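Feature request, filed as a ticket because there's no other form

It would be nice if the structure record came with a short human-readable summary line next to the tokens. Right now we just get the raw output. Example of a typical job, pasted below so the devs can see what we mean:
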Amino acid sequence: MSALDEVRWTEEHTRSADRGRPSPLAAERPSLTRAFVLVMVAIALGLGGLYLVRAALADTGGFTLGSTSAPHQLLRLMQEWRFLAGGLLLLVVLLISVELCGCEELSKVVPLYSLSYVVIALIGQVFLDERVTLERWIGIAAIVTGVVLVLRS
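Raw output as currently delivered:
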């Protein structure tokens, strides 16, 4: 099937049955390469956001959901710039995820997020002097292999 035939087939099969208009998911679908790049950006932003939130929690004494002091703890956190910046980064991750979920197959997008284990292990070993064991690297290699298999299917 030529590229033009594939485009025509996609247009024909993504029209709403009742009115002949394109369905919301028929909008230009991002390539898997674009999805991969967006997920990698989301992982980086998510790790940065979580780091900032964690630093703010450490400085303000933490947060305990459901405790009587939770509202006071939350107010203290809302005054901490790292909490706000981290929350903003996590919001961007959410927006990236919403976009990807709306235009790509979940069964292909969600496994991409598991590549965060590779990034976390590398950051831990290189920057935080953590010891990443051989068994952990083998597990990470299995995850990467699984992602490749899912994407090729």
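Something like this underneath would help us a lot:
Residues 115 and 144 are 7 Å apart (CA to CA).
Residues 32-60 form the longest helix (29 residues).
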